[in-house]
Design goal:
403 residues; 2 domains; 13 strands; binds pyridoxal-5'-phosphate
Length: 403
């Protein structure tokens, strides 16, 4: 895992670590000489004369025209993400789902086939299986644990894109990005990776051959449960297509949310380090607990894809899962027993969150469907926060005792 990608900063002409570059990236200083970026809460931008306006509309200049197309604060957020992921370009959207949807609709057409891993975010699953077919776009799913041979065998002559999430939600399966990218390159298929669970501080799919990387910025990137946002970064030519689709269809990121998210990126490195440190300690402590059938965390040696996790991730991230021996009933009881952890439909917050997929997000699936995506009846997902780790553990322990 290379964590030291250097870039040359045109402002200072100094070699900079990508994290430094992301922290120091800022909109051009105004005459007020502000240190922190101001918010550009404006829907449109003015021009001095008709010629400049004409040139902007004709793409002869990069001048901002209208916030649905571009906004300086939104661009600042994108530039930071581009630096962190090592991408060519990017586009920010109002939510993670509009980033996912835009990447499909801008690049797929009637008759194309999308190959996706089956354990993906619920709304992404709905978009792929319910809405894409309405536009004549075919899809098929493959298990996260599929082998090189199985991935390659799933490619069809009309496959245009491979879509995957790793680590998967909530099962925490790990897919070898490098292995899948070898197949996508061989068959000239776009590899699109949802990197929400890891963030670019832990995993950079482009370095392993991905063409596009998607984030729900709502999660770890904001990291404080305040705003929705999304972003797609990657190959410059593909991003151009995605930009043109989004500029016309309108899922623009609000400049206010962009300001919040851009500031959040400046602390993402230290936050993810602590989330992951707390998560590893919790996973280590819980492993072997008498009430648990298993504990799953990418950096526990007992994880089935531990070696792949070690290859492509710098830490195990902030999510820990475990299976209660008592199944469905114990899962709900565990949630009720918690005194501090929040019961809420989010993840990636300063505050630890517990969820029980079998009785909530995945309750509508059949038992067989849940099994196919590794959601067992007593599975609990903990989004580990930044509270003092002993306090998080104490709450989990007392809730387990009473199960
Ligand atoms: C939350 C989430 C999304 C969707 O993002 P929103 O910002 O809620 O639209 C997509 N992928 C993953 C893995 C997520 O966790």
């Amino acid at each position: 895992m290379t964590n030291d990608l250097m870039t040359n900063d045109p402002m200072t002409n100094m070699e900079q670590h990508r994290i430094t570059k992301a922290i120091r990236t800022q909109t051009e200083r105004t005459n007020e000489m502000e240190h922190s970026t101001p918010m550009f809460l404006t829907s449109s931008f003015v021009f001095d004369n008709a010629e400049e306006l004409r040139a902007a509309f004709d793409d002869e200049s990069d001048d901002n025209i209208y916030t649905r197309f571009s906004n300086p604060g939104v661009q600042e957020f994108v530039d930071k993400m581009v630096a962190l992921e090592g991408a060519g370009a990017g586009f920010a959207t109002a939510s993670g789902m509009s980033a996912v949807f835009g990447s499909f609709m801008a690049l797929l057409k009637k008759g194309d086939h999308l190959l996706s891993c089956n354990s993906i975010f619920g709304s992404t699953h709905t978009v792929i299986s319910k809405y894409l077919p309405r536009y004549g776009i075919e899809f098929s799913y493959i298990p996260a644990t599929a082998t090189h041979h199985e991935w390659e065998a799933a490619i069809r002559p009309n496959t245009k894109m491979i879509y995957l999430e790793t680590p998967t939600n909530p099962g925490l399966d790990i897919i070898d990005i490098e292995m899948v990218s070898k197949i996508s390159k061989k068959h000239q298929v776009i590899l699109n990776v949802d990197n929400c669970f890891a963030t670019p501080l832990i995993q950079r799919p482009i370095e392993f051959g991905a063409d596009l990387v998607i984030h729900s910025a709502t999660k770890w990137i904001d990291g404080q449960g305040r705003v929705l946002g999304g972003v797609i970064v990657g190959d410059t030519a593909l991003i151009k297509e995605i930009y043109l689709f989004n500029r016309s269809t309108g899922p623009a990121l609000s400049p206010f949310n962009a300001w919040v998210l851009s500031k959040s990126l400046e602390t993402l490195d230290v936050r993810m380090e602590r989330h992951a440190k707390n998560a590893l300690e919790i996973a280590d402590t819980l492993e072997g607990h008498e009430k648990l059938a298993f504990v799953k965390y990418p950096f526990l040696p007992s994880h089935p894809q531990y070696l792949i996790a070690k290859k492509q991730m710098s830490t195990g991230g902030g999510i820990v899962c475990f299976e209660l021996k008592g199944g469905l009933e114990s899962g709900m009881k565990f949630l009720d027993n918690l005194k501090m952890l929040s019961l809420t439909a989010n993840l990636g917050d300063t505050r630890s969150i517990a969820s029980h997929p079998a009785s909530t997000t995945h309750a509508k699936l059949t038992e067989a469907e849940r099994q196919a995506v590794n959601i067992t009846p007593g599975l609990i997902r903990i989004s580990v926060g930044l509270e003092y780790v002993d306090d998080i553990l104490n709450d989990i322990m007392q809730a387990l005792e009473a199960c």
